[in-house]
């Protein structure tokens, strides 16, 4: 039931907060987000709709289950002090929520922030419907923290939009060079066949500099707003597609655990040491064709398979003996778990999507 969420990411001082102020007309109001040339935003700021302008502390947001931010409590009190909510009576916010994030400072380590910055970003990335990654002409270099961020965005390429902000500060020829340099920096990080959409403009209320491509910048701005509107309009379709994508991951995970368990049972004899047998399987799953067998079974790309290393941690917390084979999780009345999820992925969710496309009420 939550509204679509738009997430703003990128290096410090590239204009993320100014862009939100501009989109919501907050400039010169008491609630404009603080902006400046130095790193200004150190908090995760959630801008949502409310009857009147008001600020909400992170601890209050996490305690209020109606706001859907309560899971953020798991990142600790240090983080909640860096979380802030702002309610604004704005038409656009009736249909969408904006999240402004602290700028990436390449020479700062996670420990210095006092909370797991990447994990918090991942939480918001997993829930975002649209992700604006903002750059400006002076900050195109990609360091470790930005690289890590793009690794976290893997699989969400369709939701990413790159913004080259402050474009009217450059002459045409320079702007072309910067645009090329931005693509060159990002190419190794976004390995998809189709590059993400890049918007080139200056997203703030000031007039564009004279002698720059004002018409182009204005068109880009309008395109971005249309893009945003599209996400709001397609919200239901996006949610169903996301649930289906999640169901596919659950199915892959279930099949992998089942395969690990089956291999373990096959290898165990009366005299075997269960721990040693399983360690052998977890250390080298390829020797037992665990991942390859899943690819043969399902219509899954090898790029969508989870990381092998993750299963070492997973089985470290969840012993293999605590699982039952999928074939044993069937009942006469309830059917089989795996068949149910297969049916949802192949028939039920696509049918639901189709019914929305035809304008029927789902």
TrEMBL record:
GO cellular component, as recorded: sarcoplasmic reticulum lumen; sarcoplasmic reticulum membrane
Gene Ontology molecular function terms on file: GTP binding
Signal peptide from the UniProt entry: none
Annotated ranges, domain Dynamin-type G: 1-241
Coiled-coil blocks: none
Keywords: Glycoprotein, Membrane, Sarcoplasmic reticulum, Signal
Compartments, as annotated in UniProt: Sarcoplasmic reticulum lumen; Sarcoplasmic reticulum membrane
Lipid bilayer topology: Peripheral membrane protein
Signal as UniProt keyword: yes
SUPFAM superfamilies per the UniProt record, alphabetical: P-loop containing nucleoside triphosphate hydrolases (SSF52540)
PANTHER family registered for this protein in UniProt: SARCALUMENIN (PTHR43681:SF1), TRANSMEMBRANE GTPASE FZO (PTHR43681)
UniProt name for this protein: Sarcalumenin
Source species of the chain: Oceanodroma tethys
Record lineage: Eukaryota, Metazoa, Chordata, Craniata, Vertebrata
């Amino acid at each position: 039931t939550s509204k679509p969420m738009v997430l703003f990411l990128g290096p410090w001082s590239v204009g993320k907060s100014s862009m939100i102020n501009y989109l919501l007309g907050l400039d010169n109001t008491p609630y404009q987000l603080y902006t400046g040339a130095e790193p200004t935003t150190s908090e995760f700021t959630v801008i949502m709709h409310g009857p009147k302008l008001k600020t909400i502390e992170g601890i209050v947001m996490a305690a209020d289950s109606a706001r859907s931010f309560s899971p953020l409590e798991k990142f600790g009190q240090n983080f909640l002090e860096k979380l802030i909510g702002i309610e604004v009576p704005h038409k656009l916010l009736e249909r969408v929520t904006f999240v402004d994030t602290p700028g990436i400072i390449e020479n700062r380590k996670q420990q210095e922030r006092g909370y797991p910055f990447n994990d918090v970003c991942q939480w918001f990335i997993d829930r975002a419907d649209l992700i604006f990654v903002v750059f400006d002409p002076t900050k195109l270099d990609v360091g470790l923290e930005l690289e890590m961020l793009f690794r976290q965005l893997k699989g969400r390429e369709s939701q990413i939009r790159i913004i080259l902000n402050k474009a009217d500060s450059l002459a045409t020829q320079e702007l072309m060079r910067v645009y090329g340099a931005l693509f060159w920096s990002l190419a190794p990080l976004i390995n998809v066949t189709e590059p993400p959409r890049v918007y080139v403009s200056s997203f703030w209320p000031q007039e564009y500099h004279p002698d720059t491509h004002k018409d182009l910048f204005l068109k880009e701005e309008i395109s971005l707003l249309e893009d945003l509107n599209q996400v709001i309009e397609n919200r239901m379709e996006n949610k169903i597609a996301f649930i289906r994508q999640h169901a596919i991951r659950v199915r892959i995970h279930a099949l992998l655990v089942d395969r690990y368990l089956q291999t373990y049972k096959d290898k165990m004899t009366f005299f075997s040491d269960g721990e040693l047998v399983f360690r052998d399987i977890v250390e080298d799953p390829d020797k037992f064709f665990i991942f390859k067998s899943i690819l043969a079974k399902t219509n899954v790309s090898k790029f969508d398979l989870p990381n092998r290393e993750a299963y070492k941690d997973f089985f470290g917390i969840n012993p293999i003996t605590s699982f039952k084979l999928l074939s044993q999780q069937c009942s006469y009345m309830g059917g089989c778990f795996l068949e149910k999820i297969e049916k949802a992925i192949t028939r039920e969710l696509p049918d639901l999507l189709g019914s929305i496309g035809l304008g029927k009420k789902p």
